[in-house]
Write a structure and sequence with these properties.
mainly alpha, 2 helices
Length: 74
C-alpha cells in the first residue's frame, strides 16, 4: 500500500500540468493574434465594405428603374 500515495500524487501532478497547459493556451488565444488572424479580419472588413457599396449602387438603380417603369405604365 505504500505505492498508492505515489500514484495518487503522480496523477494529481498530471492534472495540474494539464490545467496549466489549458490556461496557457487560453491566454495565448486571448492575447495573441497572428498575422493570419489580422489579415483575415482585414479581408472580412473589406468584403463587408465592398458588399455595402454594391448594395447601395444596385439598390438605387433598381429603385429608379422601377419608378421609370411605373411612370411609363401610368
Amino acid at each position: 500500500m505504500s505505492t498508492f500515495p505515489e500514484i495518487e500524487s503522480e496523477l494529481r501532478r498530471k492534472e495540474i500540468m494539464e490545467e496549466m497547459e489549458a490556461i496557457r493556451l487560453e491566454e495565448e488565444a486571448v492575447k495573441g493574434r497572428t498575422l493570419l488572424d489580422k489579415n483575415l479580419e482585414l479581408l472580412g472588413l473589406w468584403m463587408v465594405s465592398a458588399g455595402e457599396k454594391l448594395r447601395r449602387r444596385y439598390h438605387s438603380s433598381q429603385e429608379s428603374s422601377s419608378v421609370k417603369l411605373a411612370n411609363k405604365v401610368a
